[in-house]
Amino acid sequence: MARKEPAADAANPGRLKQIALTYKMTRKADNKIGLVLAGVGIVVFGVFLAIGFLVGHPIYLGILGVLLAFLATAIVFGRRAERAAFGQMEGQPGAAAAVLDNIGRGWTTTPAVAMNRNQDVVHRAVGKAGIVLVAEGNPNRVKSLLAAEKRKMNRIVADVPVHDLVVGTGEGQVELKKLRTTMLKLPRVLSGPQVTVTNDRLRALGDLMSNMPLPKGPMPKGMRMPKGGNPRQR
């Protein structure tokens, strides 16, 4: 038991440092975060303390108020930090891939299954909702990428439903902060074994990054995509 204590003590400063860093990053995009958190904590504690005086148990309800104020503050902080993070990622290349990578269990994601010379890109996710193609880039250009990817998949997974989503803020698009929620709301139509079979079939297609003869390390300056985008589409 004594050996575990130093490890736990070492972990706590790391967590506190991470929380402090998250707060600093959030404050850059949301300069009212401090006032909001303080307001939430004071209001929750004040309400429970007032109820405590009314019922004759200010100490008990005061302690409960402290705990619930801390919980409410943590929830609000988490949501505003997430909103600030999405705001900073909005419009950045690869932002959708980062969201898909953290979508949760039950999904297998493959970034950059298709891309063109303008760096419009399509990512793929497979789960019990079927196949979801997520495009980011120019809405008009990504249509051709999505259509080409659907044609390729149709040859081997024609019996699996395919959904396509375009990330953006325009009409008919899905905002980055709503991408995960939108995907999790899709109806589940496949069983676990069917998802596994679908993934096995799609592995035959590979992805853009594994099929391109790219050198190891950073991409050389001035290097461009081959004409036609995905070399598998030739």
Which keywords apply here?
alpha+beta; elongated; 12% strand; 2 domains; 53% helix; four-stranded mixed β-sheet; 8 helices; 4 strands; disordered C terminus; 234 residues
Describe this structure in words.
- With 234 residues, this protein is α+β, with helices and mostly antiparallel strands.
- The chain has a four-stranded mixed β-sheet, sandwiched between helices.
- This is Membrane protein.
Shape: elongated
Structural class: alpha+beta
Our count of helices gives: 8
Proportion of residues in helical segments: 40-55%
Care to count the β-strands?
Answer: 4
Order of helices and strands: HHHHEEEHEHHH
The quaternary structure here is single chain
Organism: Streptomyces mutabilis
Keywords: Membrane, Transmembrane, Transmembrane helix
Region (Disordered): 209-234
Pfam families: DUF4191 (PF13829)
Give a quick summary of the entry:
The chain is α+β, with helices and mostly antiparallel strands and 234 residues long. It is built from eight helices and four strands; from the N terminus they run ααααβββαβααα. Strands 1-2-3-4 form a four-stranded mixed beta sheet, sandwiched between helices.
